[in-house]
Specification:
Elements: H1 2-5, H2 8-53, H3 61-67, E1 74-78, E2 83-87, H4 91-96, H5 111-122, E3 126-130, E4 138-143, H6 147-214, H7 219-240, H8 252-266
Antiparallel strand pairs: 1-2, 1-4, 3-4
């Protein structure tokens, strides 16, 4: 029972499952790790931005360096989700998002920004900042996923497609090889059958020649000769299995008439 279960198909399927499971598990681990790292980046970006307003020294190189991150799209809003600013979004689409009659360029009337804000809000990715001097003032920073995180999340699907394609091609190649081997076996058996038929058919042909000399006027000799000729034809056809066919032109009418004549003589009057 165990040997029947552990065939090449089962082993191939188990290997594929292990590869895909390992890839998905590791990709999920990387995606979670990158997501946590991106949240820390957003928090640092918020703190760096606020440090410009509350700087106690002239050294703003570190906050400036932090705010230059260009990976994570962010939309800053008030506690009522009124848009204050945005970073790392498609500026061309932002420019197209304002209504034609909007000359004030209010961020909250921009359809592209509102749609992106809805997407970020639906993904529940946000960081809230509370003003330490006025706890009633709260800003929310909604952010999306970076391109790297998106690629890591979709990587298992690509890997699954590649593994599936590999398994499909492998199975087709094995099946083709098996069919080729099987066809070779059948061709060998057919040639052996033709060889074994050849000896008695040759003997029968000799006896037919003897009968033709002693009973040349009998109709049964002619019929026996035709049957032996058909046996020879069958033997030749078996011998040609697996070989390249050679086409010959024949008269269809004559062939059909010969077949009908052959069947009529052996069907006992049942064929007209």
């Amino acid at each position: 029972m165990l040997r029947q279960f552990l065939n090449w198909r089962t082993v191939l399927a188990l290997v594929a499952i292990l590869i895909v499971s390992g890839t998905i598990g590791y990709s999920t681990y990387l995606a979670n790790k990158i997501a946590k790292d991106e949240r820390r980046k957003v928090e640092l970006w918020i703190e760096a931005g606020k440090s410009f307003l509350n700087a106690s020294s002239n050294d703003l190189s570190l906050p400036l360096l932090i705010t230059r991150q260009n990976d994570i799209p962010i939309i800053a809003t008030t506690e009522t989700d009124s848009i204050l600013e945005w970073v790392n979004l498609d500026s061309a689409k932002v420019a197209e998002g304002w209504p034609q009659n909007d000359t004030l360029r209010d961020l909250n009337t921009n359809t592209y920004l509102r749609d992106k804000l809805d997407d970020f809000r639906a993904s529940k990715l946000s960081v809230e900042w509370v003003n330490p001097l006025d706890t009633a003032q709260r800003n929310r920073y909604y952010y999306g996923q970076s391109q790297l995180l998106i690629e890591v999340k979709y990587y298992p699907l690509v890997q699954l497609l590649i593994v599936g394609l590999f398994i499909f091609i492998t199975i087709q190649a094995i099946r083709a090889s098996f069919r080729s081997t099987q066809n070779g076996v059948w061709a060998g058996m057919a040639k052996e059958t033709a060889h074994q038929l050849g000896t008695p058919v040759s003997s029968l042909e000799g006896w037919v020649e003897i009968l033709k000399e002693t009973h040349s006027r009998e109709d049964f000799v002619y019929e026996i000769e035709k049957d032996v000729s058909r046996l020879r034809l069958v033997s030749d056809r078996f011998g040609k299995i697996g070989s390249s066919p050679q086409l010959e032109e024949r008269n269809v009418v004559v062939q059909v008439e010969n077949m009908v004549d052959y069947i009529q003589k052996r069907a006992g009057g049942k064929v007209t």
